[in-house]
Structures are given as C-alpha cells and as structure tokens.
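Work Package 3 (structural annotation) set out to generate three-dimensional models for the target panel prioritized at the project kickoff. During this period the team completed the workflow that converts sequence records into discrete structure tokens, so that structures can be stored uniformly alongside our sequence database. As a representative example, we reproduce one entry of 479 residues exactly as it appears in the project archive.
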Amino acid sequence: MTITDDRTRWFALYTLCAASLMIVLDATIVNVALPSIRDDLGFNESSLAWVINAYTLTFGGLLLLGGRLGDLYGPRRLFIFGIGLFTLASLVCGLSTSQGMLITARAIQGIGGAVASAVSLSLMLGLFTKPAERAKAMGLFGFTASGGGSIGVVLGGVLTDAINWHWIFLVNLPIGVAVVFLTLRLIPNTAGSAAHGRSLDVGGAITVTGALMVAVYATLNGNADGWTSGTTLVRFAVAIALFVAFIVIETRVKSPLMPLGLFRRRNLSTASVAGILWAGAMFAWFFLSALYMQLVLGYSPLKVGLGFLPGNLVMGFLSIAVSAKLVMRYGVRIPLAIGLAAAGLGLLAFARAPVDGGYVMDVLPGMILLGFGAGIAFNPVLFAAMSEVKPEESGLASGIVNTSFMMGGALGLAVLASVAASRTSHLESSGHSTASALTGGYHVAFVIGALFAVTAAAIGATLLRTHMAPAHEPEPAPA
C-alpha cells in the first residue's frame, strides 16, 4: 500500500494522534475517579495505588522492547496489536467488579499502550519524509502527547460526575475500534528486519525489560518505603545489575536488541537526557499545580481540569502553528532553549503562589508560560531525537524517547513529591497551618522543577546539532 495524496497522510496522522491521546488519557483520567473506584470495589489506600501503578509499571517497562519488536516485525503490525490489546483491556476495566480484575486489566492496558506508543513515532516518520512536513506533523503529535494529561482530568471529572467511573474506560472502545480500522485503511504496511533474517535478542529483551520494570517499581514506591531504606536501595541495585547484564549481552550477540552504537548519535542521546529533565519539570507542573488548586485553593476536580485549559490552548496553537516554522528556520537549539526557559519561569511563577491565591493573578500566569514553553519545546526535542536514526532503527529510537519521558516523569515526580512532603511535614511541625505547610512544600518542588527545565535548556542549547536532515531519508511516494 502506498500513500499517494496529502489528505490521506494527514488523516493517517490524526489516527495516530487519536491513539496517542487515548493512551495518554488513561495515565491521568483515572486520578479523578479514584475515590469512586475505592468506594465501589472496596480498595484501601495502599491497594488503590495499584490502579495507577499496574498501568505505569508495564507501560514503562515494555517501551524499549515494543519499539524493537516494531523494527523487527513491522511497526503497523505491532501498532494494531497494541491498540487492540489496549482496547480489549479497557473493556475489561470498564466491566470490572473486583479489585483483582481491575488491576490485572490495567496491567494489560499498560502492555498494549507501551507497544502502540513505542512504534507510533516510527509510523509517523514513514508518513512524512520532507523536513518541513515532518516538523509540522511532530508539532501536532507532540501537543497530543504533552497536552493529553490535563485533558484527562477534565474528561475524567465529566464522565465520573455525569455517569460513573466505569465510563472512563468504556469510552476507549469506539476510539480503539476506529483507530484499528483507520490504521488498516490509511497507514502502509512495511516489513520489519525479521523478514531479512534478523531475530529477537531474547536475553537482551528479558534483562532490559526487567531492569526498567524494577526501576519503575522502585521509583513508584520510593516515597512510601523511604528513598534510603534497604528495600528501595535493593530494588535499584537489582535494576542496575539487570541493566549491566543487558549491556554485556548487547556487546556479544550477533543481532542486539539495542545496537549500542545508536547512542553515538549525539542528537538522540542529548534529546533523551533533555527529555528526562523536561518530563520531570512537566510532571511537576501538572501534578503539583493540580494539588495546589485542589488542596489549597479548594477547587473541584472539574474546576482543576478547566484551570489547565488556557495553558493547553496556548500549547496547542504553538505546537501546531508555530513550533514547526521555528524549527525549520532556526533549527532545534533556539526554540528548545526558549521554550524550556519559559517553562522554568512558569514553574517559578507557581513557586510564589500564596495560600489565599486567586486564579487570574496566581495561577493563570504560570499556566500561560508553561503552555508557551511546552508548545515551543516539545517539537524540537522529538525532532532532534529522531533526526539522525536510520529507518530500520526508528522504532527503537521512538522507544528510547518514550522511555526517557516516562522514566524522567516518574522519577522526577517521585523526587519532587518527596521533597514537597518533607518540607510540608517540617512546616506543620513548626506550627504552620495545613494549607500554609502544603503551599510551602509545593514552592520548594516548583523551584526544583524550574531547575530541571533550565538545565534541560542548557543541555539542548549547547550539545544538539543544528543539522536536522534525517540520516537516511526515503524518497517521497510518487504523486
């Protein structure tokens, strides 16, 4: 199948964006519904966390493997498998009548989401080969990935309040079915490298997946168990040992899961490091500002979601209409540095928000700055990461980028939440009110998040190559 007209290619991109939005939504849409799920299925506070953690654990652990499987067996085939699995698991989540049923289905959702997410960028690169079109497509795709989280809060509040919590999962069914149908119709099928004799590196797959899953698990439980506790340190030690074993295997096998020479591609390595820090800053914005609005200012979940709307609108406009043009004119360095610096200023704006703050004066400025920063910066990070890889490596590179954001966001959020909780506890013990203590804790975390953003800006501005042509750009399909 060959795509012969622009309209078909853009409809194919919208299909990929719909899938990405559905997967991103499920990482956040659940948060608003957790109290209802707890009451309905009888969860306690510790077991309730697994409604989120089961999804995060499998999603974060399988991104790299999913990307490589796409390179081996064809990205469209893996994408359809991932979306199909995700959709079926969503149905089971929506019909769940027990804790075990819901948690198991959430873990399977994570598997499907990881596989589909890991190859989605690779599919997009196959659709758009010209740099200008690719930059514009990445802007739309990047907005979907970065803005979907706050959309999830709004949608979760509406569905839970208007119907019930089951529909936060059941709403995925028509979307998933439509995505599979449109993918078969619109996106060309390409053979993976397994068709040319390449095989899966089983040892590498087991060790890297195990390393990522143990690292995610250790991060998710770091606050509860203590970051310096023996349990947490042992988990991280196991993750490191598995990763070292993975590196050793990759240097010895004939067809490695991850060719280590890939990290000599400076833009991919630099963008991955910047992405880790950027994701930490983004998670600080989304989760901590939501907590500030809900716990300090007393906003309802729906009002919290609507509070993000101005930032999302700014982000969407810049991602789709402006960011691509900036990349094509100035390269990736300048837009990335400006965007991340603006995001840092936005986080600093939240770091001065008072206990008795108002939305217009104390929340909106930070939202606008962060929307501006994300709208400008997300596209250059993605574009730089994928700019120097060969077509047969694009799935793996996509998995690396997604893993960087996932691990950076999870670890950054865990660290910042721990810092905020420690500061809040200290202030409460010193006689501050609960609201004042919470605000003080958020302030410290926002400042650290701003440092993450500024550091990412400095790394990107100094280390990224300005040349943006792909390493092996295929010829465009004939009209």
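The chain has three domains: 1-130+150-195, 201-256, 264-470.
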